[in-house]
Amino acid sequence: MPKINRTVATGASVEDAFAFLADFSNAPAWDPGTETSVPREDGGPKAGLTYDLVVTWGERKLDMEYTITEFEQDAKIVLVGDGKTTTAVDTMTFVAVPDGGSAVTYEADIKLKGVLRLAEPFLGKKFKELGDEAEAGILRELRRISTQG
Q1: Which of 114, 61, 107, 60 minimizes the C-alpha distance to 80?
Q2: What are the residue boundaries of the structural domains of the chain, listed by start?
């Protein structure tokens, strides 16, 4: 059961950080494993909205769908992902910090399906790398947002 848990401090406000990350169509900008992410309907992120993703795993491209299961404006979002080989629960929480910026905690609980589950104990290094790259991507994009305003 690989888990990623990272907290990023940024100059972006809670409102700006939440607006960017809660819109999972922005995932390709910060998540190195996400190639595309397209919402199934217009109107912005909300509970029940599903995104169709293409994710990369090595040389493979895999289809996944992620559905927002919890949506607390400017505070928390939970997405549940499901694909042929993987399930995931991604949770992001947002907290204002005294300097006007925010702290964003990103957690991903990833489970492989079927016989692939046997490989989970050997993939710790790969999931650590994915966590490092996602953390760097979130920080880069939130820094970009905070310097635009």
Answers
A1: 107
A2: 3-148
